[in-house]
Write the structure tokens for this entry.
Amino acid sequence: MNTHDPRSTFLVPLPSVRRAARADALEVEGRFVGSRSGDVWLVRAVGEIDVDTSKKLEKTIAGMLDAEALSIVLNVEDVSYIDSIGFGLLVKTKKRLAAKGLLLCLVDPSAHVRRVLRSAGLDMVIECFASEERALEAVNQLVPANGQQSY
Amino acid sequence: MTRASHHSQRNTKGRIISVRLPGTASSVAEARDQIVGFARESGFSDDQLFDIGLAVGEACANAVMHAVSSQSIFQVEALDRGGEIVVTVTDPGDDALPPLLRDPDRVGGLGLFLIRQLMDRLSLDMSHEGTRLTMSRRKPAA
């Protein structure tokens, strides 16, 4: 809070910032996967989900759910960082899907991300699977909200 | 004034890094990188570096959301006190009550909750000059 901190006289320009291409900090791609036992949105996120980038994921998810409300399998194996804004987005998406009897699953979160999910108590809310195949199996076994098994 | 600046030096208390950044969302990752790099040199483990990075990210996200405008500058400082790292995030927001305290059920509240989980200690000073969040994490026993 001290604006007369003598250290501030030593402030120098930041030499090199690896964040030059911040727009590339998160890549998101979504795919429709249909099968005899059910359809899902498969989403793959690569990079960091934070206050700056989470809008990208939010937009992709919103676009898909507007096109068709389906369960979402979100592959986060290459997500190195996720903050409370990202967790907030996951919880919001989970609630939106759950209201329609649909699922949100995560695939292969890193040990770091899993640990934080546990700390925040979100491991009890959002299911995680070791592979996309396992997650797709789980989603396809889901009994829809109207009580009818999808065949 | 430069848009972003940093400085690291050693004083009698230990190594210090000081980073000043504009109050925009893209600054958060930059602050995280700087402090994690500093903590890495201080000998923290990978797990601890992730925790410190996330805690710094949460505190800076709050400072950015709290920023009066994108022209606002927030400051992040880290001090390596030997056995622990102390990180301070200061923003000049003119509102004495930071967003993360307004509604504990909202996302900002989760940010504060996460900082408590990730760090050993957290304190929040509020005044008419702005908000200062101080957090510390001990190094693993050698």
